[in-house]
Specification:
Elements lengths: L1 E8 L8 E4 L5 E5 L6 H13 L20 E9 L2 E9 L6 E5 L5 E5 L2 H12 L3 H7 L1 E3 H9 L2 H12 L2 H30 L5 H90 L3 H177 L1 H6 L24 H61 L7 H41 L18 H67 L6 H80 L10 H60 L2 H27 L4 E6 L2 E6 L5 E4 L5 H22 L10 E5 L7 H14 L5 E6 L2 H6 L3 E7 L2 E5 L18
Parallel strand pairs: 3-13, 3-14, 8-12, 12-13
Antiparallel strand pairs: 1-2, 1-4, 4-5, 5-6, 6-7, 9-10, 10-11, 14-15
Helix pairs in contact: 4-5, 4-16, 6-14, 7-13, 7-14, 8-10, 8-11, 8-12, 8-13, 11-12, 15-16, 16-17
Length: about 1000
Amino acid sequence: MRPLRLEVRGFTSFKEPATLDFEHRRLFAITGPTGAGKSSLLDAMTWALYGQVPRVGRETRQLITHGAKAMAVQFEFSVRGTRYMVSRQAPATLGSRLQRQRIDGSWELVADRVQQIDASITELIGLDFSTFTKTVLLPQGAFDEFLRGDVRDRRAILTGLLGLERYEQAGRDARVRADGARSKADYAREQIERLDAATPEAMAGLEREHATLAASVERLGARTALLVALAEDARASTDAESVAARAATADAEAARDAASARDALARDEQGREAVRAARDRLDGEQAALGYDEAEHRRLEREAQTLEQRKAALRAVAAAEAEQREAIEGVERAGGDAERRRGEADAADATSRQAADAQQAALDALAAAAAASLATERALGEAANAADDRRVSAERAAAERDEEARRLAALDDRLRTQHQVLAAAEREHAEATVARDAAEAASKLASERLGEAEQQRAERAEALEEAQRQDAAAMLRQGLQPGDPCPVCGEPISHIDPHVAPELDAARTALEAADRALREARGEHASAATTLATAAADASRASDAVERAPAELDAVRGEASQAGVDADALADAATQASAAAEAERARAADAVAERDRAGATGSRLGMLRASIGDALAGLETGGGEPGEFEEVRAVLEAATEAHRSASNDAASAVERARNAAEQSRSAAASVERADERRARADGELARAREHLAALGAADVDADAVRTALAAAQQQAARHREIEAALATARQELAAANARVEAASAALARAEETATRRADGSDAARASADEARQRLAEAWAAAAVEGAPDAARAPRILDEHRAAVAACERECDLAAQRLETARADAERAGQMRADAATYDGNAQLADNLARELRRDRFIAYVQREAMHLLAADAGERLRTLSSGRYRLVVREEAFWVVDGFNGDERRSVKTLSGGETFLASLALALALSERLPEIAGRGGAMSLESLFLDEGFGALDQDSLDTAIGGLETLAGGQRLVGVISHIPEVAERLPDRVEVVKNGASSRLVTPGVVPEAEAEPSLSATP
């Protein structure tokens, strides 16, 4: 993989888009002060490829620039001549893409999901995240420690680089599996001991018990049929007796019903005779009454005629009285109408005089209103001028207030930034102390963990030795009486207890070592977490210290742009506030003047508006303005005069209108009186005609009324007799029907009584036969006692319960027998399982022993040391112009000096520059051979690598040597990037990129190229 182009935005200190171009570079440097963001470029490249970085893992939200909502990285690289571009953004919801460039220059999508991108990157590059960070990104300080450190440190570094901790974990897993297999074997043997019913003797007893119960079930089943027949005969006998009893009861009821029917017939015949006698009596009374209905109707007509003549006489008298009143009303209405006409003429003359006076008052009011309008306009102009002065003063006050607020805010920010700087420096000092303490604690925890692991390995080896010394105990472990002897093969009858204090002590010591190892691992993990937290806190505090001065400079710059010394911001803000107060006072004076003019004009306007209706249609312009009080007095006097004249005119008009209305009302009254007289004349004529039509009164009214009363009494009695006769006829018909029904009911009752007597005799005979069959079944079933139908069902239920109980016992016995047979089979299987578990435990123990640090892991570390020494030796020979090569001696690196007769000496004797070359050669060898050594593929040739620092401890000569080695390293097609804050490195490497920190943001500058801030932004949307 060869990097081609890196673009970042919102990533750590790179808030604005920044681009790093790798094309056409071979050896170059990325320089800049500490904390500027140099290593962040490597983090951005790693995050673009794998979605994580070594220092924060996948918790990449904290990499987003402070104050930004998102970050984006776009990285172009080539693999085997094909160009790829991977783009990632955070938060993850913004999307990620991996694309491949076609031959025509366009891009095709390879993957757009995070998991697909991660898998594709690993497949393309051939390196997973862990291997990439150890082979392409080389921290020189770590390889110097690996080259010159002691054996324990070198082993720890190799374990981490080669991933040997997975073999240690595999050994621990093997020990856990061995313990689990032994526990399963012990559990299987415990279960075998609990299966006491699986013995041959127990199974024979269960078989005998089952056979006995089965015979009992068969015997009881044979008697069940007899008892079922007995129960059926008993039920039949009981049913027959019940039928006979019901038949006898029905026979008695039928006899009683026949007697009741005869009594009912006699009662109904007596009732019919009584109804017939009542009807005959009413017929006689009706004949004796002698009522004449025609005479009754004639008397009613004569009485009605007498009443009509009496009413006609009253109507004639009333009509004559109404005629007299109507004539008098006509005379009164005529006199009143003449008087009202005179009053109306006088009121009309008075109204015309009042109208003339009102017009004169209106003319005077119009002149006063014109003067008022002119005065209002003059006052309005004065108010507008005052308001203009108010607006000008308020604008000036607002400008002074804004200036005061701006200066006060700058002063607050200045003081705040001073406090922030002091707090950041304090927090940085505290975080540095905490980080140093955490590093010391982590180192101590690592040492304790190593000691605990070594002690555990020694205790495990001691246990193995004790087991070898006590081979007999190992052979007897897990054996039970009855198992075959592992020596002779014969069954074991008895096992004596074995006492092995050395073996027990070794096991106890190993258990104690395991506990100590677990505690050490817990302490180590806790210390690592604390160290990571402290390092992050220190990094954040350092960033805060670097950002604070830039913020202070920004505040001072704003104060300078405002024309104020930063130290005099508070005084300038106070002066601006005082100027604003003066402008506000001037505005208040203008407001008071405006309000006075406005109030005066409003009063005149309100007064003039109150007479607006009176002036409608009149010309009120052309007046001259005057003093307010004089104009107001004239206007009020004219208003009052106009109001008085208007009221007088209105009153006169109202009186004239009322008089005219009253005159019209009097004329209408005359017309209504004439109409009433005409109606009275007509009513009188009609009343007299009606009376004449009724004729003269030639009948005795008292005689007619007496005869009519007698006829009405006879008619009432006649109607009563008719109603009683109708009722009597209905009752006689009902009585006849009842007699007929009673006769029919008597016939049916006598027939039913005869039929039920015959049925009772037959039921009695059937009951006797059923009783005889019950006695025979009782004898057949051999039941003790006299035959009893009530006992038979209970006897059958008791027998069936006994059969069910016997069957249950038989089933339980069969289940116990089947369980015993299954237990015997399970016991055999569990013995085989226990043997298998014992074998698995032994195999896991052997694997755990082989994966100890002093065996397989030590072997891999030794082989890796020799492979690295051989490869790094050849590289060191090239970098040192043929003088040095590396060899391994007693698990340490030595150099062979070709210029001194192949003298061998420790690498600790090399100078600073020579040590750098040796570390670099070792790093290159490890970076290219790591996949092969770690079992993740064959050897590879890296097209690019980056060296992060490692130059700080070199003097000038050593630096010359190191730079020369790097130039030799980059002589081929490999891209070599150097990350350093040392100015001398930048001077020796003309192809370089500088990371410039500006406040809290960083940017990239390439000497001789237009600064990025002045060029077009390079980070664009994904193609």
